[in-house]
Amino acid sequence: MSTLAIVGAGPQLGREIGRRFAAEGIDVALIARSRTTLQAVADDLSDTGVRAEAFPADVTDRPALHAALTAVEERLGPIDILEYSPAPSLADLRRAPLVEATKVTVDSVLAQLDLYLLGGVAAVQHVLPGMLERGTGTILVSSGAGSGPVIAPHVANVQIATGGMRNWILNLHAALSGTGVYAAHVAIAAFIGQGGHDSQPQTIADAYWRLHTERTEAELVIQDLPDDYLERSLADKFVEP
Q1: What is the torsional sign of CA 23, 11, 2, 202?
Q2: Which of 175, 153, 140 has the alpha carbon at shortest distance from 230?
Q3: Which pTM was predicted?
Q4: Which of 49, 58, 87, 175 is the most buried if burial means most Cβ atoms within 10 Å?
Q5: Contact assessment for residue 89 and residue 96, using Cβ atoms and an 8 Å cutoff
Q6: Alpha carbon distance 124, 119 (integer Å)
Q7: Pairwise CA distance, residues 159 & 144, whole Å
Q8: Residue 37 and residue 226 in contact, taking contact as beta carbons nearer than 8 Å
Q9: Mean pLDDT for the stretch of residues 221-230
Q10: Are 20 and 12 in contact (CB under 8 A)?
Q11: Please, which pLDDT band fits residue 148 given cuts at 50, 70 and 90?
């Protein structure tokens, strides 16, 4: 039985990705900071017939992330599929605000690099050697589409970090050709759960399953933004009431 590790698992997309892969008999490991949120998602997946377990860790704490991924391997077996999609909390945004393009500073970029790029590198490099040794594996890294396909100047400091991650994953996709290991980037231009059919978590989770099974595309762009996306700036879940 295969194991999927979702790093940055949340109650929307993370839960639906877990449910989609669990429907295919794949065990699910959920990694994020909040034990309460993770356990609620794990409990929600309890009817799928597979093992779904929570492994709390902060991706910016590299030893903790390494320990969580190691615990996954010890409890559920080798990680065959890695999905990396961290998102900031409101507390993160207060501590490290989003910055538009003309106001980017070194300090405003460093926290974003830590969350998106460096956390992603650490997660991928934890699982990649084992995948290469086994000759099989899938790595799916997600970010907002401002990482490349869409211009989003109001969140420029984030896009510096996610753009770097996107570039690396596209290069990793090419470098892994012929190894049996597949890597792809998912650029999400949508307010997940708030827009039309293409913005719904279940629809996006189906797209992740297609990437994993078809193993051809280096990148999938999910485009379902409203015309006023620059004015709205953030998904509702990041806006305090």
Answers
A1: positive
A2: 153
A3: 0.91
A4: 87
A5: no
A6: 9
A7: 8
A8: no
A9: 68
A10: no
A11: confident
Average pLDDT over residues 180-199: 82
Residue 5 tokens read as 């590790």
Q: Do residues 130 and 107 touch, judged by C-beta distance below 8 A?
A: no
Quick one: pLDDT band at residue 88, thresholds 50, 70, 90?
Answer: confident
Strands 219-223 and 181-189: what pairing? parallel
Which residue, chain included where needed, has tokens 């099989």?
Answer: 136
Dihedral pair phi/psi, residue 222, rounded to 5°: -100, 110
How much is the average pLDDT of 195-205? 82
Structure-block tokens of residue 144: 């907002």
Element at 185 (helix H, strand E): strand 181-189
For residue 65, the model assigns a pLDDT of 97
Residue type, 90: L
Burial (0-12, 13-18, 19+ Cβ within 10 Å), 178:
exposed
Flag whether pLDDT at 133 surpasses 50.
yes
Q: How many CB atoms lie within 10 A of CB 90?
A: 11
Amino acid letter at 194? Q
Q: Which of 54, 26, 57, 27 lies closest to 42 in space, CA to CA?
A: 54
